[in-house]
Design brief:
single chain; mainly alpha
């Protein structure tokens, strides 16, 4: 088969394959792709929110631990204990509404907060 014959054959095959796709098929695929893109965007937003919350939680843990080690005044310890308790309440509310993969993460967070709370109570 000559090069020119091969090119013509390939062109005919491509045209025949593309002509098999109807406008409805193409429209349905486009709609499905746009819905998928919307879902991916929602997932991206939720994961960034979750990452931000985890960073905030880590920062609060570090602050509470360092404050406990420094021997801060009683009023500061009481304030941090109140913040920790409020965060625990917030996490419990999230835990009630969460589905299984997130419930495990929230339970781990509650355990960490309980340790911090116990340390702070021990300092009082």
């Amino acid at each position: 088969m000559k090069k020119s014959e091969f090119k013509a054959y390939l062109r005919e095959e491509i045209i025949s394959i593309l002509s098999e796709e109807s406008a409805e098929d193409i429209e349905a695929k486009t709609k499905a792709q746009s819905e998928l893109n919307k879902e991916l965007e929602k997932t991206k937003e939720l994961s960034s929110t979750l990452m931000k919350e985890e960073e905030d939680d880590d920062e609060m843990d570090k602050q509470a631990s360092s404050a406990a080690k420094k021997g801060d005044s009683v009023s500061k310890i009481v304030n941090k204990l109140g913040e920790t308790t409020n965060e625990m309440k917030k996490v419990v509310r999230q835990y009630k509404d969460a589905e299984e993969p997130e419930k495990t993460r929230l339970l781990t967070r509650l355990k960490e907060l309980t340790k911090i709370k116990n340390e702070l109570e021990g300092l009082l």
